[in-house]
Write a structure and sequence with these properties.
Order of helices and strands: HEEEEHEHEHEEHEHHEEHEEHEHHEHH
Distance between the termini: 53 Å
Helix content: 25-40%
């Protein structure tokens, strides 16, 4: 992909920002100036995303997404014609079995690394759909604020909304239960792109799928305790109550041992894992180290030798795209529920 010289790209974007883009403007108290938009049909519309209200005069036409779960959301809603491309590491690109695999083949794969402002500019993006630590971050200077200066709008993955619970540091994430975050994004994007019927149908389908899995899941008193292991040896990266695994584990009939952590993806100490003694460890499988390498480490790590999951070899592997906010979450609930029933002999 050709990357334009930074200064020329920024100058071009700033010059054209008022003339092009998705027609977004920050609303005051949720009210947009309808007279400045086309004023016909569905638009203008005002949406709320991570506490910020924005009014759109028209649907974005050149969306760039970062990471697989976020692209999945767009494709599940049938919005590939509104996309300029997606950014996604190759090891997260297991798309052969999903219903929207043809959309992945149709839409340009812009980068196998992470999104940059240059990628967004080169794609002539009018909206970047990413999340905090899913492409947005101060370290990379790819933020809604920095993109706004280039005339590019942003939509933040609701799972990653910062919640202000970490002593004012601003990095703790999550403002609602994970599946509610998925349903919220489907509903909000359905409104933004005027596909509300599609969004409502998906939400109804996913709610039923989860309810059916819950009906067959182990009940109180028989719920195995579960720890999510993403990676890390000095300290494990895991899921708090606001990342996808919490709802997946809980609705599948498990007791999430880190449910008290008011964050999404975060690190803990191994001593906490040992103390909480999970019956099952779920491995998040992506990239390197592989799931088998992670499993070998867990089995060989001396402090874990008396943990129930290790003693009983109850280690279950799930794919990354199943565990981050994604339309794959409901099927992941069903799959894990089956494993947990086997653990309890149901």
């Amino acid at each position: 992909m050709r990357i334009r010289h930074r200064s020329a790209a920024l100058l071009t974007a700033l010059t054209l920002a008022a003339l092009t883009g998705c027609g977004a403007r920050v609303a005051e108290d949720g009210k947009g100036d309808a007279a400045s938009g086309p004023g016909a049909g569905h638009y203008p519309v005002t949406i709320e995303n991570c506490g910020t209200k924005t009014t759109y005069d028209k649907a974005p036409r050149r969306v760039v997404t970062n990471d697989v779960g976020i692209a999945d959301i767009m494709f599940a809603l049938g919005l590939e014609d509104h996309m300029a491309g997606y950014v996604m590491p190759e090891y997260r690109g297991r798309v052969e079995a999903v219903a929207w695999k043809d959309a992945y083949a149709k839409v340009p794969w812009l980068s196998k690394k992470t999104i940059t402002k240059e990628i967004a500019l080169d794609a002539k993006a009018d909206l970047v759909f990413a999340g905090w630590n899913y492409g947005f971050g101060e370290d990379s200077d790819v933020t809604p604020a920095s993109l706004k200066k280039l005339g590019i709008g942003s939509y933040v993955l609701t799972e990653s909304c910062r919640n202000g619970t970490d002593g004012g540091q601003g990095s703790a994430r999550g403002v609602m239960p994970p599946l509610d975050a998925l349903y919220t994004d489907l509903k909000t994007l359905g409104k933004l792109f005027d596909v509300e019927d599609r969004a409502d149908a998906l939400i109804a389908k996913y709610r039923k799928q989860v309810a059916d899995a819950q009906a067959r899941a182990p009940k109180d008193g028989a719920r195995p305790s579960v720890f999510l292991y993403d990676g890390g040896q000095d300290k494990p990266l895991t899921s708090g109550r606001f990342a996808g695994p919490h709802d997946i584990i809980t609705k599948a009939g498990g007791d999430h041992v880190m449910k008290d952590l008011k964050d999404s993806w975060t690190t803990v100490g191994w001593e906490t894992v040992v103390e909480r003694d999970p019956d099952v460890i779920v491995i998040n499988d992506y990239g390197t180290p592989t799931a088998e390498q992670k499993k070998s480490f867990l089995k060989s790590y001396a402090p874990l030798r008396n943990v129930s999951a290790i003693k009983n070899n109850r280690i279950y592997v799930m794919d990354y795209a199943d565990l981050v906010e994604s339309p794959r979450n409901p099927a992941a609930v069903t799959a894990l529920s089956g494993y947990l029933r086997d653990v309890r002999g149901h």
